[in-house]
Design a protein that fits this description.
Elements lengths: L5 E5 L3 H13 L3 E5 L2 H11 L3 E5 L7 H9 L10 E6 L4 H10 L3 E4 L4 H31 L1 E2 L2 E2 L3 H13 L6 E4 L6 H10 L8 E5 L8 H6 L16 H4 L4 E5 L6 H13 L1 E2 L8 E2 L3 E6 L3 H6 L5 H7 L2 E4 L10 H16 L8 H8 L6 H15 L39 H15 L4 H8 L3 H17 L3
Parallel strand pairs: 1-2, 1-3, 3-4, 4-5, 8-13, 8-14, 9-10, 10-13
Antiparallel strand pairs: 6-7, 11-12
Helix pairs in contact: 2-3, 13-15, 16-17, 17-18
Length: 468
Amino acid sequence: MENAVKVLIVEDEPHALMGLAELISGWGYRTETARDGIEGWEKAVAWNPAIVVTDLKMPRMDGIGLLAKLAEEGSGVDANVAVVLLTAQGSIQLAVDAMKMGAYDFLQKPVDAARLRTILANATRQRDTTIELEVARRRLRETGVLGSMVGSSKEMREIFALIEQIAPSNVSVLITGESGTGKELVARTLHELSPRKSRPFVAVNCAAIPESLIESEIFGHEKGSFTGAVERRAGCFELANGGTLLLDELAEMPVGTQAKLLRVLEERKLRRLGARTEQEVDVRVLAATNREPNEAVARGELRSDLFYRLNVFHIDLPPLRKHMEDLPAMAEAMVRDMSTKHGRRVSGLSQSILDRMMAYNWPGNGRELRNTMERAVVLCADGAPLDAGHLPPNFGKAQGQAAQVYDASVVPVPVGTTVDEAERLLILRTLESTGQNKTRAAEILGVSLKTLHNKLKEYSQSREDQPA
């Protein structure tokens, strides 16, 4: 019981107070009691409960007064404390007003034990999510990492801020972006930072399911509902019940199925194919597409009413070429993951491989980068760093983009590159072309060997000074 969630019960009627304490303790919570709002406030400050269950009408200080005291900044009580109000029949409006002040929920007397247990469980999950979200925010501020997502660029920080804001809610989110930009990763992060994180996350690719089977996959079917339906089968909504469902490539879903999906979203009820009755489902629905949704609506591929229903919030992921400053950190995170996956020890990425990767436009985005890093990790000698030799033989040549072919005799310098950065690229590329022969590189560059050594030392120190 030492690590059990702490619940403070505040109630002026002795028998009700004792009954609630016994009931809640029996569910595995640690309980403390108080007989009015003032005593409740004193015990909250001393004991710091996670949840306060308080009567609304009490002498000296009522439940509204206690709620206001708990909400005061600098009160000494955990800011995440959840306050549950117990109300008499005639005070429902007061309870509603208390919800606007920050109360977590309210419950009418006489107390429904099953309802109270559900409220306490939900409040506990909500509290855990809030704490984890604050940890995630701190990690994001320090390292540029949110969940499994990495990035410190302005574009990614704006996306992270939106994810933090909407993850704890149940709102639908439409995620767009080119193939490989990480739409499913965003959906998983939204799920992992929500109160639903302990429930299923189900992702279904609408483009990968034959049109004749998609309704069965999403809504389920009864035995004998169509040829080949030899047994009852639960669909994706049922599998995700209580959790999150990602509908990937939404614009590929048949329009007729979209109409049925809209009805499920609005009524939170579904009927399996061949079933006579409906069943309730509690699912947060996220949708993703690599198409421009407004264009898909204009072409009749995506129903406008479904689009508006899902587009409560919109997260548009930029292609990797639009935030290349994130590539080194993304690549390093992927190398760590792949090293663990394949049981390898890789000592980082050399400047030569970073230069090659930074000069490429990554048409396959983060997915292409991840595949490239996995290949490099598998080829790398144990304990060695990744270098340009670990890249694919045709790296830099994307289909239909001949200008991206890597040429060791050319140093690509994009417009906007500083003189110091251009000099660094020229020196490192020349060294690479000479097989790291510093004497030969100095001759080609027209500088002394001492100058070259000083420059390399400067670059090495600069890289070590960068935050990990």
